[in-house]
Automatic annotation (TrEMBL):
Location of the M23ase beta-sheet core domain: 185-248
Source organism per UniProt: Streptomyces stramineus
Protein name, as recorded: M23 family metallopeptidase
Length: 285
């Protein structure tokens, strides 16, 4: 997997140069036409080359396999990864791919933010520009194993963002920041994350977890409903939330998304509240 990772990083680096050249040309001084077009074209060419190195499904065209998911599988039924009252965003029940891309196995991914009735989640808007991560009830909430499984990957060394990016102006920051995170690799996009092997070729991935909160490590066996980490605000994250997805292999660079359904919940649509067990209580209390 070294070659696709290298090409992916090169493609993102060229994309950053392209954006920087556009900004420089528009706001600072005129620059050569080729300094703008060259990196943009090169990024596209390298991106296409990356697709040829991705691991395809059997008997499929390599480029097509990288661009789109395999034929839809029957949704895998698992337990919910959280408990309490939550709010769904970027849900596959509303659209697929839910995050606008099949990359990193995200076809059926979902984002979850805690929104307990006694401690409502701060609203998105123009002001304040940023709030502390601790102002959000999701921060520090338990994250649970969705099935009996084996831990494949566990990492929680990255620090949580002190401030969130949950305002309109702050979105500009994360759009630029996201490009640099992609250059650094999936780990910087996902932040602290866990991958569980559920068996039968299905893996669960949890992203943006709180620093130092993991209670398991690679090789451990976990039980459904067991607390395995806490919700954080790491990686490419606008606010504390749980990013959850199922995929067909543990490496997100080669993985394809797998549809899921949660027992007793189903798949909540985007901007829909759902409740699992007892209502969540703000970790700050």
């Amino acid at each position: 997997m070294f070659m696709p990772k290298l090409l992916n990083a090169l493609s993102r680096a060229l994309a950053v140069v392209f954006v920087a050249a556009l900004i420089c040309d528009y706001f600072i001084t005129d620059i050569s036409f080729w300094w703008v077009v060259g990196p943009g074209l090169s990024s596209g060419i390298v991106g296409a080359a990356t697709a040829r190195f991705r691991r395809p499904e059997p008997a499929t065209d390599k480029a097509a396999a990288a661009a789109a998911p395999a034929e839809p599988r029957t949704p895998v039924e698992v337990d919910p990864p959280v408990t309490g009252r939550w709010y769904a965003l970027n849900s596959p029940a509303t659209k697929t791919p839910s995050h606008g891309t099949h990359a990193y196995g995200q076809t059926y991914a979902i984002d979850l933010v805690a929104d307990p009735e006694d401690t409502p989640r701060p609203a998105f808007g123009w002001w304040p520009l940023a709030r502390r991560s601790t102002a959000f009830p999701a921060f520090g909430q338990p994250v649970l194993a969705v099935a009996d499984a084996t831990v494949v990957h566990a990492g929680d060394r990255l620090r949580d963002h002190t401030f969130t990016r949950n305002s309109v102006p702050a979105l500009l920051l994360i759009l630029i920041e996201g490009q640099f995170r992609e250059i650094a690799g999936p780990g910087r996009l996902l932040g602290n994350h866990l991958v569980l092997d559920l068996g039968n070729g299905t893996y669960a991935m949890y992203a943006h977890l709180q620093r130092g909160s993991l209670t398991v490590r690679a090789g451990d066996r976990v039980r459904a409903g067991q607390e395995i980490a806490r919700c954080g605000n790491t990686g490419n994250s606008t606010e504390p939330h749980v990013h959850f997805q199922l995929m067909d292999r543990p490496d997100v660079l080669a993985a394809r998304g797998v549809p899921f359904t949660w027992r007793g919940v189903g798949v909540p649509a985007s901007r829909q509240h759902f409740v699992v067990g007892e209502p969540a209580v703000s970790a700050a209390n």
